[in-house]
Every structure is written in C-alpha cells, then in structure tokens.
Write a structure and sequence with these properties.
By secondary structure, the chain is mainly alpha-helical. The chain has helices at 40-173, 179-186; strands at 4-9, 15-20. 75% of the residues lie in helices and 6% in strands.
Length: 190
C-alpha cells in the first residue's frame, strides 16, 4: 500500500503536512491483510513452515530438556522419599529400642526394690528375733527374781505372821508360844 504526503495551506498562511492512505478516510477499499482472500495461500504456506519449525524445535530441543528435568526431579523426589522412609524406620526402631530399654529399666528397678525390701525385711526380722530373745531372757530373769522375791517375801510374811500371832497369843492369853508350835499352827515345818 502506498501513502502520499500532501501539503495544504490555510487562510492564515500556515502549512500542514499529513500522511494518508489512498482511498480517502476510513478504509476506502483496502482490506485487512490476514482477511484478504488473495493472500490465503501464502499465509497457509508460512503457517505450515512455522508450525513445522516450532514442532521440530519443541520435539528435538525443548521437550527433551523438560523430560530430563522432570526425570531428574522425579529421581530426586524418589531418593528423598527413600531417605525419609529410611529415617522413619530408623526413628521407629530407635523409639522401640528406647521403650524396650525403659521397660527393662523399670523391671530392673522393681527387682532391685524387691531385693532391697527382702533384705530389709530379713534384717528387721533378725533384729526382732534377737530383741525377742533378749527380752525373753530379761523377762525370764525378772520372773525368776520376782518368784524368788515372792518366796522370800512369803517366807518372811509367814515368819512375821508367826511372830505376830505368837505375840498376840502371848499378850492375850499370857502363854509363851514356841516357834515350832507357831509353824505347826500355820501349816509349815518348824
């Protein structure tokens, strides 16, 4: 399409230049090139050439790069998932080992507590028996002393009773009583 340049003078003496397409204002008969039927053949030829070049470029250059990038990402993700799974298994094993160690420690602590309790019980029982023996001996000794004291006291009571009875009889009756007579009266040996 050709354009023409025109110069126009106005009443004030000014000049203006303008560029216009032939055919006047607003299109004047020229068609939009992509919609011009006379250029369809060449447009289709160039479309096929550019589409072929684009297809070849995509299939030989771009898509292999994208595929290799996606495969690398996929491999990286798979290796990271494998590492994560291994770490998870290791963590699970560590937790199980910890729980087992904790259970073992608890059972060992319980057995130590039972052994200590049994040892203290045996010691307390031995001390109790020794104390009972000592107390039993002291009680038996005290009972013997009490029995001896009682028998001495009873003998003294008899003697005192006999003397008191003899004294009472002597004062009341005026008769002198012998120790043998008093012992015979009290039912004892004189």
């Amino acid at each position: 399409m050709a354009t023409t340049t025109t110069t126009a003078e106005t009443a004030a003496g000014e000049t203006h230049e303008s560029t216009e397409a032939p055919g006047g204002e607003h299109g004047g008969g020229a068609k939009f090139p992509p919609l011009d039927i006379s250029t369809f053949g060449s447009q289709l030829l160039w479309l096929a050439i550019f589409f072929g070049l684009l297809y070849w470029l995509m299939s030989k250059v771009v898509l292999p790069r994208i595929t290799s990038i996606l495969e690398a990402r996929s491999n990286h993700i798979a290796s990271e998932l494998a590492k994560a799974k291994a770490l998870q298994e290791q963590t699970t094993a560590s937790i199980q080992a910890y729980e087992k160690a904790l259970a073992d420690a608890r059972s060992q602590a319980q057995s130590i507590a039972q052994e200590t309790r049994a040892t203290f019980s045996a010691e307390v029982e031995a001390e109790r028996k020794a104390l009972e023996e000592t107390l039993g001996k002291k009680i038996a000794s005290a009972e013997n002393r009490i029995a001896n004291s009682r028998s001495k006291a009873m003998a003294e009571v008899r003697t005192m009773a006999g003397e008191a009875a003899a004294s009472i009889v002597e004062q009341l009756l005026g008769i002198k009583v012998t120790k043998a007579a008093v012992a015979k009266a009290l039912g004892g040996k004189g």
